[in-house]
Write a structure and sequence with these properties.
The complex is a heterodimer. By secondary structure, chain A is of the alpha/beta class. Chain A contains 13 helices and 14 strands. In chain A, strand 9, helix 11 and strand 10 form a beta-alpha-beta unit. Classes of the chains: A alpha/beta, B mainly alpha. The interface between A and B is medium-sized, with 14 and 12 residues.
Chain lengths: 412, 76
């Protein structure tokens, strides 16, 4: 007789992180540039950049896939999948988790991405429409498919449990991490690699962002009165997540605890965020965590640097937290690593985990004049020592999709 | 001429009754949201071969704003 899965409520911890980003191709460099408030925003590198109206971005520097992967494996992966695999490997290595026959079906891989293998896809369109070729590369499909990141991680590591991809625009990684959290907490899995990857610097995709008019000409200045919009970024962030019991049994170093996840949808406008949806997602994450709003010391904001998002988000935070909103800190690390779309909330989750672990609030970089509509402590231009015990990380995406994670400082 | 062109664009692309579009109409009155505004500006740029920078967009919330913004772009 097949035993029914018994739903439990287990503690879920993070034992490893991996990063590819505009401010570092590993967690150490990434965090150092956050602490030192050194943005990775500048002129992005693309052969047709002069034909795009915005010149600045947060692209990844000096990434060479051959340093990490065999050629045969690389041939199957578009850039976003390479990022996903490399970040996953760093996270797993840090955790010292080893996949074996006992745990491989109990391990999940859940990745977020908004557009997946767009480089391969765009190359194929170029060849057909511009060069009038009658065939494209035979690996265009496996390289383009959005599940390429998750599938290649599972193949590289021999993971045979639940492996899938979530695509919810800018909230993709939070949805992926939140799903992994619920799978482990409930007893369906014992561990998971979760996060996201995105590599949006292709010509037509840059043109698409130019057309929707939300990208700043200068830089990303979340919460500043003079903010002009977002800065497009790329990268990957991955978490190694597992039960507390498994982590302690292995003697793994615990970085933080994942304690709550909330998700809502605005059902309002396809691009303009709705404050109510954002509020309810934060409330849901706090309820799921079983804590009180007054326990939250820090929020890693969605904080895109657009006029609309930042004022909405501050208003939502004030409604959720009341007077306590004036006591907590809220910063946007998009000001440093850019808006990496489907990957961005994985980078922000890692920034939040490190903030809890190190007792250091990440800054909002590039901050200039205060906007009265964003009058909270946004940690302007310099990181700050502060011990915090509970934090939220927000993601409010196009399509009205909201996903919020709650983390707790790990204390032995 | 600019107003006429804008009214034609809205009529063609958004199905609005041209006779109900006046120089004093706000986008809100015409039932146009932020995305409609961006589309209109893109169509105007293409029709007149001009560039209207993002910094001007925030102030374009009516037909008069659109006419003024386009005139400014045409006059360099």
């Amino acid at each position: 007789m097949v035993k029914r899965i018994k739903m439990e409520s287990r503690k879920v911890v993070v034992t490893g992180t991996g990063v590819i980003s505009a401010i570092g191709n590993n967690t150490t460099d990434f965090w150092k540039n956050i602490v030192d408030c050194k943005p990775g925003i500048g002129e992005y590198h693309h052969p047709l950049a002069e034909q795009i109206r915005f010149k600045n971005g947060a692209d990844v520097k000096n990434f060479d896939g051959t340093q990490y992967l065999e050629k045969g494996d690389l041939d199957l992966m578009d850039r976003f999948a390479q990022f996903a695999v490399v970040a996953a490997k760093e996270a797993v290595h840090q955790s010292s988790f080893i996949v074996d026959k006992e745990n491989k079906y109990r391990t999940a891989v859940i990745c977020g991405t908004s557009i997946g293998g767009i480089h391969a896809q765009e190359q194929s369109y170029f060849e057909v429409y511009k060069e009038n070729k009658t065939r494209v590369h035979p690996l265009t499909i496996p390289k383009s498919m959005p599940n390429g990141g998750a599938s290649n991680i599972s193949m590289q590591m021999g993971i045979t449990g639940p492996v899938y991809t979530i695509s919810t625009a800018c909230a993709s990684s939070n949805h992926a991490i939140g799903n992994a959290f619920w799978l482990i907490r409930s007893g369906i899995c014992d561990q998971a690699i979760a996060g996201g990857s995105e590599t949006p610097f292709t010509y037509t995709f840059l043109k698409a962002w130019e057309a929707i008019r939300v990208v700043a000409q200068d830089t990303c200045r979340p919460f500043s009165k003079s903010r002009q919009g977002m800065i497009l970024g790329e990268g990957a962030g991955m978490l190694m997540m597992e039960t507390l019991e498994a982590a302690q049994k292995r003697g793994a170093t615990i970085l933080a605890e994942v304690i709550g996840f909330g998700m809502t949808s605005d059902a309002s406008h396809i691009t303009k965020p709705d404050q109510k949806g954002a509020e309810e997602a934060m409330r849901m994450a706090i309820r799921d965590a079983g804590i009180h709003p007054a326990q939250i010391g820090y929020i890693n904001a969605h904080g895109t640097g657009t006029l609309v998002n930042d004022s909405m988000e501050v208003a939502a935070v004030k409604n959720v937290f009341g007077e306590h909103a004036n006591q907590l800190a809220i910063s946007s690390t998009k000001s440093l690593h850019g808006h990496a779309l489907g990957a961005t909330s994985s980078l922000e989750a890692i920034a939040t985990i490190m903030a809890l672990k190190e007792g250091l609030l990440p800054p909002t970089a590039n901050f200039q004049e205060k906007d009265e509509a964003c009058d909270l402590d946004v940690v302007p231009n310099a990181s700050r020592k502060k011990e915090i015990h509970y934090a939220l990380s927000n993601a409010f995406a196009f399509g009205g999709l909201n996903a919020v994670l709650a983390f707790k400082k790990w204390e032995d | 001429m600019v107003f006429e062109k804008i009214a034609t664009l809205l009529s063609t692309k958004k199905g609005l009754n041209k006779e109900l579009i006046s120089i004093d109409s706000s986008f809100e009155e015409l039932g146009l949201d932020s995305l409609d505004s961006i589309e209109l500006i893109a169509d105007m740029e293409e029709a007149f071969n001009v560039t209207i920078p993002n910094t001007e967009l925030q102030g374009i919330k009516s037909i008069r704003n659109a006419v003024d913004g386009l005139s400014k772009a045409l006059n360099g």
